[in-house]
Amino acid sequence: MTHLPYILASYGLALGVALVLSIGAALRLRRDRARLASLEAARGGTPRRGQAGGSA
Amino acid sequence: MKRKTRRLWLVIACVVGLGSAAALTLSAFSSNIQLFMAPSQVKAQPPATDRTVRLGGMVVAGSVRRERHGETPVNIFDVTDGQAAVTVRFEGILPDLFREGQSVVAVGSMAPDGTFTASEVLAKHDETYMPKEVAEALQKSGKWDPKFGPPPNAASWNAMTSKDSKAAGQTR
Amino acid sequence: MNGRNLSATPTLTGRAGALFHRYANPGRFLRLGDRMQPWLTWPALVLTLVGLGWGLFFSPADWQQGDSVRIMYVHVPCAWLASSGYFALVVCSVLSLVWRHPLADLAAVEIGPVGACVTAVCLATGSLWGKPMWGTWWVWDARLTSVLVLFFLYLGHIALIRAFDDPQRGYRAAAILALAGGVDLPIIKFSVQWWNTLHQPDSITLTGAPTMSHSMLWPLAISTLGFTLGFAAIVVARLRAGVMESRIRALLSSPRRARDAATEQAA
C-alpha cells in the first residue's frame, strides 16, 4: 500500500478515540448506577420507578 | 403556553436576523474568502510583484517542461481557467498528484516578465473516485482523456466493476 | 389582528410541547434508553468493523490517489457526524430555549464532547489525507476554516454549559451559543460551491449520481451508518449516566431526608 503510515494513523486515531469514548461512557454508567442504587437504598429501600435496574 | 409561543417567535426572529447578518457579511467578503485567483483575473489585473498570491487552475496538456539546474529540478508549466493561461515556474518537487489536466494551486508571486514564480505547488484533486481499471477502460473506449478535464457523467461509469471494465478493455 | 394570527400557534406549540414533555420525563427516558442501548451498540460495532475492514482491505485503490483514498472511510463519516452532531445540538437548544425541555439540556451537555471528538478526528484525518495528496497539512480555505470554526464552537459550548454554579444559566447561555453557531452549518455545506477551495466538492449530492465507483460507495455507506449508530450509542449511554447523575444530585441536595430515611431504616 502507498502512504501506509498516513492510512494507519487515520484508522488508529479514529478507533482509539471511539474506544476511549465508549469505555469512558461504560465506566461512568456503571459507577452512576452503583452510586444511585446505594443512595436509593439508604433513602428508603424501595427504589422509585424506572430505577437503576437493567443491563448496560 | 403564551410564553412558550413568545419564546418560539423570539428564537425564530433571532435565527432569521443572525442568518441574514451572516449572509450579508459573507457576500461582502466573498472575494477575500476565495482561496486562489484564476489566470484570467491575474492577466486582467496583475498583482504587484512583491505580493504573495495563490494562482489556481488546470495544468495545460503538453505545457509541462522539466529542467534540471544542478541539483534542483525546475518545472515550467501553464495554468489555465479556460479563458487565459499563465506560465508558472517552480523549483522543487511536485506533489504526487501533479499531472497534465490536474487542477493545481500555486503559491508565489508574479515575475516582471508576466510569468508566475511559485514557492509551493498544491495539487487539487476532483470529487471523482474510481478504481484504476475503470479509469483505464474509460480512457481506452475514448470517452475520457484525463489530460483535458473531468470524466464523463458519473452515472455512465459508477456502477462499472473491475470485471466489466476488463471485458470492455479487451473488446476494444 | 395579531390575535387571530397567533391563535393557531398556541395549540401547535401546546401539542408539540406535550409530545416533547412526554419524553422529557427522565424516568421514562431511563427505561427507554435501557432498552435502546443494545440495539444501538451492537449494530454500530458490527457495521463500523465491516465498513472499515472493507474499506481498508477489500475496496479498490483510487486511479489517481492510490491507497490514500482509504482515509476517506474514516474521514467522511467523521465529517458527516461533526455537522449532524452540531445539528442535534441546535435542536436541543431550541427545545431548551422554547420549551424548557429538561432532557434536552442534559442531552446538550453530553453531545458536546462527543461532537468535539469526531470533529477533531475529522480535522486530523483530513490533514493526514491532505499531506500526501494535496501536498500540505493545512490550508486556510473556506471548507477547512469553517470546520475548524465548528470545532471551536463545540469547545465553547462545552466550556460555557459547565461555567455556571446554577446549571440552568449554563444551559441557557450554551443554548444561545449553539443556536448562533448554527449559521456555520450551511457555510460548511456550501463552502465548496460558493468559493473556490482546495477541498474538492461533495461526491454525493441529492441532485446527481454519486461521482464515486459503487465499489467505494458501499464500504463508505456502511462505515458512515456504523459511525452514526456508534455516535448515537455513546450519546445515549452518556445521557443515561447524566440523568442518573442529576438524580444523585437531587438526592444529595436534600441530605436531611436521605439521612432521616437511613436512620428510620436502621431503627
Question: Rounded to an integer, what's the Rg of chain B over CA atoms?
Answer: 23 Å
Which secondary-structure class do the elements of chain C indicate?
A: mainly alpha
CATH fold-level label of the largest domain in chain B: OB fold (Dihydrolipoamide Acetyltransferase, E2P)
Q: Tell me the helix content of chain B.
A: 25-40%
How far from one another are the termini of chain C? Answer: 67 Å
The largest beta-sheet of chain B arranges its strands as 1-3-4-6-5
Largest sheet of chain C: none
Gap from first CA to last CA of chain B:
73 Å
Total E-strand runs of chain C: 0
Oligomer: heterotrimer
* Biggest sheet features of chain B: 5 strands, mixed, barrel
Low-confidence stretches of chain C: 1-13
Structural class of chain B: alpha+beta
- Count of helices of chain B? 5
Protein name (chain A): Heme exporter protein CcmD
Keywords (chain A): Membrane, Transmembrane, Transmembrane helix
Transmembrane segments (chain A): 6-27
Biased composition (Polar residues) (chain B): 155-172
